[in-house]
Design goal:
The protein has 285 residues and is an alpha+beta fold. The protein has six helices and 15 strands.
C-alpha cells in the first residue's frame, strides 16, 4: 500500500489485510485510483484495471436540508447549549411506514449565500432546517485524474428526482407551521423567510437553500448483485481488502449516520476476530 505522507510517497506492508475507512468520498476514490472500479472509466484515465467493479463510486446518497426557514426574535437571545437541541421527525405523506422528513431547530440564522442575497436577515433571529431523509435522487463520484492529488468530482444529483422536491415542500410547510405555533409566539416577532409565497417561488426558495447535512454514504455498497463488498465487508475480487465506513451502506439511513457507522466498525471487527480465530484453530490442528 502506498500513500503520500508529508509530501512524500511512502509504502506500507500489511501482514494480514488492509482496511479502508476513508468514508464515502475517499474510500471509493482510493479504490478507483488503485484499479478497482469501472474498467472502461479506469482505462480512459490510464489506470491499470485490477478488478472490474462498476458500482464503485456509484449509488451516492446523502441527506439534504434547506438552510433555512428563519424567524426574528422579539428581543435577541444568545445561543445556549450547542445552539440547536430540538428536532422533529415526521412523514411527508401519511401512507409512509416511517418518517422521511426532519426539522432541526437552530438558535441563530444560517442562510445560504443565495438566500442571504435576497433577504435582509436580522442578526437576532433563529431558524429551522427542513431536512429530507429518504432521497430518490442518486448521484455518483467520478475521478478527474489518476494522481492522488487529483480531486474527486461529486455529482450528487440533488433534487434530480421530482419526488424529493415534493417532500421538501411539505417539510418547509411543516417548519412554517411549527414556527407559527402558539407555544412559540413569545420567540417570534415576524417570519423572515420564506413567508407565504407562490408555489413557484417556494420551489426557488428550496433550490436556493438546499445544502448537504454531510451524511454522504453508499458509494461502495454491501450486497450481492452489482455491489462492491460482501457481508463481511470484503471487496469482491480483491484478496485481503476490506472497507469499514459509511460507503458500504446500501441505502442512507433515516437518521444521522454516526451510529450506523459505529455498527459497521463493530461488524468489521467481529468478522476479523472470527476469521483470525478460525485460522488459529486450523494452525493448531
Amino acid at each position: 500500500m502506498e500513500c503520500i505522507l508529508d509530501g512524500r510517497s511512502r509504502r506500507f506492508l500489511a501482514s494480514q489485510e488492509v482496511i479502508l475507512s476513508l468514508a464515502a468520498i475517499h474510500s471509493p476514490k482510493v479504490l478507483m485510483q488503485s484499479g478497482v472500479g469501472d474498467a472502461e472509466t479506469l482505462t480512459s484515465l490510464d489506470i491499470p484495471v485490477l478488478q472490474h467493479l462498476p458500482r464503485v463510486g456509484a449509488n451516492f446518497q446523502d441527506h439534504i436540508m434547506v438552510s433555512s426557514c428563519i424567524w426574528e426574535y422579539p428581543d435577541p437571545l444568545p445561543p445556549r447549549g450547542n445552539g440547536g437541541e430540538a428536532t422533529i421527525f415526521a412523514k411527508s405523506t401519511p401512507e409512509l411506514d416511517s418518517p422521511d422528513i426532519q426539522l432541526l431547530q437552530i438558535q441563530f440564522p444560517v442562510p445560504t449565500p443565495e438566500l442571504a442575497a435576497r433577504h435582509t436577515i436580522p442578526a437576532g433571529s433563529w431558524g429551522i432546517f427542513p431536512a429530507f431523509l429518504r432521497p430518490h435522487s442518486v448521484g455518483r463520484l467520478r475521478l478527474t485524474g489518476a494522481r492522488p492529488e487529483d480531486p474527486i468530482l461529486i455529482d450528487s444529483q440533488i433534487l434530480s428526482d421530482p419526488a424529493d422536491l415534493t417532500a421538501l415542500r411539505r417539510c418547509v410547510e411543516l417548519a412554517r407551521e411549527v414556527g407559527a405555533a402558539q407555544a412559540l409566539r413569545g420567540l417570534v416577532k415576524r417570519e423572515v423567510m420564506p413567508t407565504a409565497i407562490t408555489p413557484s417561488a417556494m420551489d426557488d426558495f428550496i433550490r436556493d437553500g438546499v445544502t448537504t447535512i454531510w451524511h454522504q454514504s453508499c458509494t461502495a455498497k454491501m450486497g450481492q448483485d452489482m455491489s462492491v463488498v460482501d457481508s463481511r465487508l470484503k471487496v469482491y475480487g480483491i484478496e485481503r481488502l476490506r472497507i469499514a465506513d459509511a460507503s458500504v451502506m446500501p441505502r442512507v439511513p433515516l437518521a444521522n449516520t454516526m451510529a450506523p457507522s459505529v455498527i459497521i466498525g463493530e461488524l468489521a471487527s467481529r468478522a476479523i476476530a472470527r476469521e483470525l480465530s478460525l485460522i488459529q484453530s486450523v494452525l493448531q490442528v
